């Protein structure tokens, strides 16, 4: 059977075509597939973003600085530990270079710790003594492209919580608060970097 006969048979059957697996498509179906692929390819140009691609960060940004956070509380550990944890998170998850000097970085991520609340969360029912402590931190984050002043990401009033236990037996007392602050810093870092990289 020659090509001309095949074309006539195809037209007689509604203009259908076969792929290599023998699946038959009409011309309308084929054009629908083409249009669908074109629409999918154009999503990025219509304000849509694919998560995990760092869409918020301008392509000109190659270096990032995360200086010591401003602190409006009497708790100073988070002021230093949170920026260190965020820098570590960026290094682990991205190819951006983390540098110390904010005046030389392409982008600067700054923060402010506005409140740290420390209060008992669990009490011994017999003695009424606290057996667990809760730490709540409120933090403002601002990520700016230094050359243009463009705000890449900003979120105020971010809330983070961490708990730690108190030893009931005084002879076995061990201060867990330092470890709780370190865990809280890691939580902040993971959340902030994730929000920036996922472009949400």
What do you see in this structure?
- This protein has 200 residues and is an alpha/beta fold.
- The protein folds into two domains: 3-46, no CATH class; 63-197, Double Stranded RNA Binding Domain.
- 32% of the residues lie in helices and 30% in strands.
- The protein has helices at residues 3-12, 27-41, 77-93, 177-197; strands at 17-18, 24-25, 63-65, 70-71, 97-99, 107-123, 130-145, 151-165.
- The strands form two sheets. Strands 3, 4, 5, 6, 7 and 8 form a six-stranded mixed beta sheet that branches. A two-stranded antiparallel ribbon has the order 1-2.
- Helix 3 (77-93) crosses helix 4.
- The longest helix is centred in the last third of the chain and has 21 residues, at 177-197.
- The protein is elongated.
- The model is unreliable at 10-21 and 33-54 (pLDDT under 50).
Strand content: 25-35%
Number of strands: 8
What profile does the largest beta sheet have? 6 strands, mixed
- Rg calculated over all Cα atoms: 28 Å
Shape, per Cα inertia axes: elongated
Unreliable segments (pLDDT under 50, ≥5 consecutive)? 10-21, 33-54
How far the N terminus sits from the C terminus, by CA atoms, comes to: 58 Å
Helix content: 25-40%
How many H/I helical runs?
A: 4
Helix-strand topology string = HEEHEEHEEEEH
CATH class of the largest domain: Alpha Beta
Arithmetic mean pLDDT: 79
CATH topology of the largest domain: Double Stranded RNA Binding Domain
Q: How many structural domains does the protein architecture include?
A: 2
